Amino acid sequence: MTQRGHLICDELKGNGVEFIAWVPDSETHFMHDSMLNDRSLRVIQVCAEGEAIAICAGMHLGGKRGVVLIENQGAFDSGNVLKWAVNLSFPLVLLIGNLGYLGYQNPEKTPAGKMKKGGGEITEAFLEALGIPYEQVNSDQDVGKISEAFSRAERDSKPVALLLTSADDFVPGGKGEPG
Amino acid sequence: MMQRFESLRVISEMRTDEIVVATMSAVKDWSKLSSSALDFYVAGAMGYASSVGLGLSLAQTSRKVIVLDGDGSLLMNLGTLVTIAAVQPDNLIHFVLENQLYEIPGGIPLPGVGKHNLAALARAAGFSKVYEFDQFTNFREQVGPILREPGPTFVTLRVNRGPSEPFPAIRYVEMARNLKNALK
Predict the structure, then answer these.
(1) What pLDDT score does A177 carry?
(2) With an 8 Å Cβ cutoff, are A63 and B60 in contact?
(3) Confidence category of residue A113, pLDDT binned at 50, 70, 90
(4) I need a surface site. Which of A22, A78, B99, B158 has the fewest CB within 10 A?
(5) pLDDT for B135-155, tens place per residue?
(6) Tally of CB atoms within 10 A around A41
(7) CB A140, CB A2: distance < 8 Å
(8) Least CA distance to A88: which residue of chain B?
(9) What are phi and psi of B97, to 5 degrees?
(10) How far is the alpha carbon of A53 from chain B, nearest alpha carbon, in Å?
(11) Would the pLDDT of B95 be above 80?
């Protein structure tokens, strides 16, 4: 376990983020305690990922900054509302747990490796199809990319994604199969 | 059964400085009733008007947010009821115009018409303030207090199918910019 959850929360707050619209995700489990215990961040837990995107769009219209924290599979489920956010030029920052990416790099290392196509190929192709730029956040040193994403989203008036991996041996739900 | 346009006209006459988020068929009527900078239309993201409204209600806590949703739209994002009831925004009023149809693609009946009950779903999701109207006179008498009381509030209106007419041309990016500027 790293301090990445705290580093990311600090980076978000440094960019004026007040809300995180969230569906729990095993890849970004390192965020959970950090953000839920942070009194200056309000976590809005939603039932499905598309809600998170639309809620952050509403916050943007209302003059507040929220970020979306979801899993890549939830992003796939939210293709239409992501398309809408692109069409409306909403400068949203999307934190996407890139389930499967590490497995793609090393299928024996993580249970998510069993669904390697989820991360290594589909997530990036999916975002590219929508015209959403993305960066990888795979280490503590990558956390600074979050500030760059906010700048880019505002400059280009479009959503920008950050693909997060856990970089540890966390096994979601024990030793069972990944979702 | 109520006339949708007349029902929305009553809301428009009572509206003061509330934000209005409308979607699908409601846009056809609301766009004839209002040209406020505090209006926003969700098109191209069917089901998500109430989620946009929730985001606005969290960002603009001193202002009320009225969502004009459709029944087919709500069925595409039923989890929104649970989310809103969990967050409990006291400034959000979620109207659902129940015509029991996908009106825009040609009036196709919704799945489960006569079996599902959206007001009951809202209560089961955790809304404590739920109203159902199918008589215009009752609605006209009660909508004022409903708009003024603390929410979150869920209101279903049994309405007729609207006239066949083209969807209005909306400049959505400009509309979003105007709303954002109006709320600064």
Answers:
(1) 41
(2) yes
(3) very low
(4) B158
(5) 999 999 999 999 999 999 999
(6) 18
(7) yes
(8) B173
(9) -90, 110
(10) 8
(11) yes
Given a cut of 90, whether residue A139 has pLDDT beyond it is no
Which pLDDT does position A68 carry in this prediction? 98
Q: What is the pLDDT of residue A110?
A: 53
Paired tokens of A50: 């598309």
In contact, B67 and B92? CB cutoff 8 Å: yes
Count Cβ–Cβ pairs < 8 Å, chain A vs chain B.
107
pLDDT at A50 over 70: yes
The whole-angstrom separation of Cα A34 and Cα A56 is: 20
- Residues 13..72 of A with a Cβ closer than 8 Å to B: which? 19, 21, 42, 44-48, 50-51, 53-64, 66
A112 has pLDDT over 80: no
Which of A41, A55, A68, A78 to mutate to test binding with chain B, by most B CBs within 10 Å of its CB? A55
Residues paired with A134 in a beta bridge: A161
| Spatial separation of the C-alpha atoms in residues A122 and B5, rounded to whole Å | 45
CA nearest B35: which of B173, B170, B183, B161? B170
Return the residue matching tokens 């440094």: A14
Q: Which residues of chain A neighbour B87 with C-beta distances below 8 Å?
A: 44
Of A44, A87, A89, the CB nearest to B87: A44
Give the integer Cα–Cα distance in Å for A98 and A173: 17
Average pLDDT over residues B47-75: 98
- The per-residue pLDDT for A107 is 56
Question: What sign does the dihedral A147-A150-A154-A155 (CA atoms) show?
Answer: positive
CB B155, CB B144: distance < 8 Å: no
Nearest C-alpha neighbor of A92 from the set A71, A124, A118, A69:
A69
Rounded to the nearest angstrom, the minimum Cα separation between A132 and chain B is 17
Q: Which chain A residues are closer than 8 Å to B173 by Cβ?
A: 87-89
Give the chain B residue whose CA is nearest to the CA of A50. B48
pLDDT digits (tens, 9 = 90+) for B26-49: 999 999 999 999 999 999 999 999
